[in-house]
Design goal:
Blueprint: E1 2-11, E2 21-27, E3 47-49, H1 51-58, E4 65-69, H2 79-88, E5 92-97, E6 111-115, E7 140-145, H3 148-160, E8 168-173, H4 180-190, E9 195-196, H5 200-204
Parallel strand pairs: 2-4, 4-5, 5-6, 6-7, 7-8, 8-9
Antiparallel strand pairs: 1-2, 1-3
Amino acid sequence: MLKVNEIYYSVQGESSKAGLPCIFVRLTYCNLRCSYCDTEYAFYEGTDFSIDTIIEQIQKYNCKLVEITGGEPLVQAECLPLMEKLCDMGYEVMIETGGSLPIEKIDERVSVIMDLKCPSSKMMQKNRYENINHLKTIDEVKFVIGTREDYDWCKKIIEEYNLSEKCHILFSVVFGQLKPIDLVNWILEDNLPVRFQLQMHKIIWEPTKKGV
């Protein structure tokens, strides 16, 4: 059984799949408390579903792209067989994880979007850097940047772990805290090999709207 906060159909708001129709399975619980968290409602609220029930819900939509998110989905071990079964059924599966829990047991067919927490998140000490050794070329590392200190820290991490040779790198701003134009200018000044992204769903809908 998995405790599920919500299952909904929308467009992918972030990652290299941004703009594509996607089914989201948001699982309950999170082991982190980031300063800028926008999904606190997923910390505790949810309903217990079997894997088969979750798949029945997914099959209601004519879409083959599925993202498992949270909260922190890896808190619930049953998310691993869920993803494996979805891959077996021909779905393209993504998981968004906060980067503090092991990723090596995730099915190799799944695209991992892994955060590395910057200083302003107040959760940087939770980063599990060993995960970098298990990243695949189809995976993505996301940095959510709120300050110039965050940005400079990201540059050091990219260089130290040779991240640009391992996977795709995503840079986002903390919504409402750092101006997108400032981050874009920093990226261009340093010619960083990263993909800048906005949280598309917060532009299309009200920033606090759920289920999108």
